[in-house]
Amino acid sequence: MREHAFTVTLDEQWGEGIVSFAHGSQLDLDVRLESVHEGILVSGAADAEFSGVCGRCLTDITRPVEVEFQELFAYPGEEETDFEVQDDHVDLETLVRDAAVLSLPFQPVCQPDCPGLDPVTGERLTESTGSEQAAPIDPRWSALQQITDQDGAAESSAAEKEES
User: Fold this and answer.
1) Using CB atoms within 10 A of its CB, is residue 147 exposed (0-12), middle (13-18) or buried (19+)?
2) CA angle 17, 20, 26 (to 5 degrees)
3) How far apart are alpha carbons 157 and 159 in whole angstroms?
4) pLDDT digits (tens, 9 = 90+) for 144-154
């Protein structure tokens, strides 16, 4: 058994879409290699930072991610396997890339309760402009607005009479 810890600089971008691991970013690997009867068992963890934009408000985000992986690199033989030992070496790039890219969030957000963008103005709702806009009323329900206005006026006048 052997354990190794090293840092790798990415030669290209890993991942597509609104978040990815950028070209030139650092990937910290802790790897454990064990000799087993069928081949070499590789297990470990990768730490990196992904960058991209929030899926709701389009703000730039950068978040750390840690992913664990484990795979058997089989000795060459008659059976077809996904990963094989090549000249007493194992190539971890495909294994680590697949694990890291699959750990990226599908819909990343800048904060868990990100309100997103205002559908009318297109401004970020996290940046309050100070002007509170009333929600648009569906024209089919607009007649009910008059009833609620009357009830509100009646309740406030009744509250004033109780106080005096």
Assistant:
1) exposed
2) 170
3) 5
4) 777 776 665 55
